[in-house]
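Much of our argument rests on the idea that a fold can be written as discrete symbols. Part of our work consisted of pairing the sequence of a single chain with a tokenised description of its backbone. The amino acid sequence and the backbone structure tokens for this protein are reproduced below.
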Amino acid sequence: MPANARSTSLYRADQVRGIDRHAIEQLGIPGFELMQRAAAAAFALLRRRWPAARRIALLAGSGNNGGDAFLLGALALQAGFAVEAIALTAGSGGDAARARDAFESAGGHITIADAGTEIPDSDICVDGLFGTGLARPVTGVAAALIGKLNAAQRTVLALDVPSGLDADSGSRLGACVRAEATISFVAWKRGLFTADGVDCCGALELATLDLPENAYAGFIADAELLDDSITGLLAPRRLNVNKSSFGHVLAIGGDEGMGGAIRLTGEAALRCGAGLVSIATRHEHVLALNAARPELMAHGVDDPAALAVLLERATVVAVGPGLGQGAWGRALDAAALDSGKPAVVDADALNLLAQVPRALPAHAVLSPHPGEAARLLGSDATAVQRDRYAAARELAARHAAVVVLKGAGSLIADPQGRVAVCRWGNPGMASGGMGDVLTGVIAALLAQGLSPWDAARLGVALHARAGDLAAGEAPRGLLATDLFAALRRFSNGFA
């Protein structure tokens, strides 16, 4: 296993608890020692990130997450910090009880929380209320504390997982801590990187607690985190090539009044290296496409017969942006998918698939947002967001295709159950046309010979990284066309 495997491996909470047990029971590392290592790593992060901090408030639950907080508090007291602790209960269990005693022995004072308890004035609040074991909405005194913490807008360091966040799905379980930084112990929890996790966790750091590699034996990561090495999927180009060497994308869509969508798809495919890109659209859009982007070969297409000539020449089809759900769109969608060409299926092509399920080409990528995913699953967007991992896997299995579930922390799933997670992207990308651009990016990569799995993973990474570069420090007002220059740059590597 590569040395950086821990940095990209995402686990379910039950798997991390299993790794803990294996380290304790099979490798002989005492649980309290692991707790000490966690506290030391968290305190080191606190001092490194907030060097001027001198007053700490601890919020501690009764379990091991609270134990981590108490030991951090003991270290802080020994270093001359002022520390105030608020505990949910009058006692703690197991190793956490020993940690609580260590905190009090170091001179710490503990206040037992009630409904009226306020958050102490401090430079940093340390969230050690619940950790990964939470499986129900936070209620009662704990919910009140979290509400006051968030309302006070204090700087928060969360231990392992922000309290109130589902470590597996990344969805909020009622009241949820909003942290400025989160330190994850032993291994990354998959919920930190998608859905509400991206809002609640802040900056993320992993502390493996010096566990040896054999502590992870038998625990196969549930998902992988995309990193910069993904650009290695596109090899440097040989010199002795021509435009036919890099595939021909046929982008199909742009019903009346929606020509811009298919233009975005086509230009994105060019910017990401497709050798040729044709557009099949309404006649009324051809002149504008030729004027704005003459490198695109725009064709007015009335029916499947006219589309057939273009399909013969295509390597890959990208169908859906601006397609509409009328007779014209339905006819072209059916012809495109019946051609058997590798396909990227997006937007209205997904809505048509939800209305009339059909077999897809052997090499297909579906790219739904949560609403489209919900229609495909016969569900609703709230349910999809509640467990994005399950939704993406179900869609991939049901349609025998690679699926990109877009959103904060986009997921890429394949029919075998693999899932990759994108750590990049920004809220400025929640704007019209961004999905059309992504469709063109993935289509271009398919046309250059990548598999659907690799094209989807790299395409999502290129799209998100380009969005981050284009947004800079001002994501509000970002346009889909702002990504094009960055897409060209990143298609040649992330350096």
In short: The radius of gyration is 26 Å. The mean pLDDT is 96. The chain has two domains: 5-223, 228-490. The domain at 228-490 is CATH 3.40.1190.20 (UDP-N-acetylmuramoyl-L-alanine:D-glutamate ligase).
